[in-house]
Amino acid sequence: MPTAHLSDRAVFRVGGPEARAYLQDLVTNDVDRLGPSAPLWAGLLTAQGKPLFDMVLFDGGDGTVLVDVLATAADALAKRLTMYKLRRAVTIAAEPGLHVFAAWDGAADHPTDPQLAALGARWIADAAETDAGVADYARHRRALGVADSGDLLTDRMLWLETNAVELNGVSFTKGCYVGQENTARMHHRDKLRRRLLPVTVTGDPSDTAITAAGVVIGELRSHVEGRGIAYLKVDAVDAPLGAGGAAIAVDWPDWLPRGG
């Protein structure tokens, strides 16, 4: 069972008597469902329903919440949350002694990743024995077709286009949060026209723009060893695609229904 220290992630704690109610008013998922064995994947959005940050929330004990976020975005997320705090009884503090770990291809005595069970276990601890790293876990994620935080187009795509419904990143029953109105409207009225999708890349792309018959229909967000994540128009995924001389083929994952 490979176990990796996700050293590209950082952890901070949201505490105080109003911590959970405060986050409940801000993020896309239902914080009331958060428990010791039930982490949550959630987004903090613009008023238009576009992601500014995504994060995994863990029960920190005593009513606190541990936030697992891309390390390069941690300071900005903490500042954004502080901006919303106003007079609420909430504290936000970095936890440099805590780290994020993941294990897959076998059972683990830790919470299952909230996005997709096939990703394996994910947890926060001060230390763990590891035999894998960030690159190994990224390879595992891409094989399952699950995008990483760095694949998101900050403030340029809709939260639902990250496959947030299928990956358990949004609640439509919890009530209001930042961006809730547009997110709910898109879910109930509109078919998604674009999504983050896994792709096979054959060749070495010299450009991230993905084209079909000479028309730009998406963007290659990341790729390593022939596997990548792309932001694409859904109605063009079956056409011959290319990016800067490389051939692009969509690998529609089993967990993502077609036509939605």
Beta fraction: 25-35%
Q: How many domain units?
A: 2
Task: Round the Cα radius of gyration to an integer and report it.
Answer: 18 Å
Q: What portion of residues is helical?
A: 10-25%
Task: Please list the strands of the largest sheet in the order they lie side by side.
Answer: 10-11-12-9-14-13
| Main sheet characteristics | 6 strands, antiparallel
Separate helix tally:
4
Tally of strands:
14
- Report the uncertain regions: none
Helix and strand pattern: EEHEEEHEEEHHEEEEEE
Broad CATH class of the largest domain: Alpha Beta
For this structure, the CATH topology of the largest domain is Alpha-Beta Plaits
Give short descriptive properties of this protein.
alpha+beta, about 260 residues, single chain, 14 strands, five-stranded antiparallel beta sheet, Alpha-Beta Plaits, 2 domains, six-stranded antiparallel beta sheet
Could you characterize what this model shows?
The protein is of the alpha+beta class and 260 residues long. It contains four helices and 14 strands. It has helices at residues 19-24, 74-85, 134-144, 180-189; strands at 3-5, 9-15, 40-45, 51-61, 64-70, 91-94, 99-103, 121-125, 194-202, 209-212, 215-224, 227-233, 241-243, 246-250. The strands form three sheets. Strands 10-11-12-9-14-13 form a six-stranded antiparallel β-sheet, covered by helices on one side. The chain has a five-stranded antiparallel β-sheet with strand order 3-4-5-2-6, covered by helices on one side. The mean pLDDT is 95.
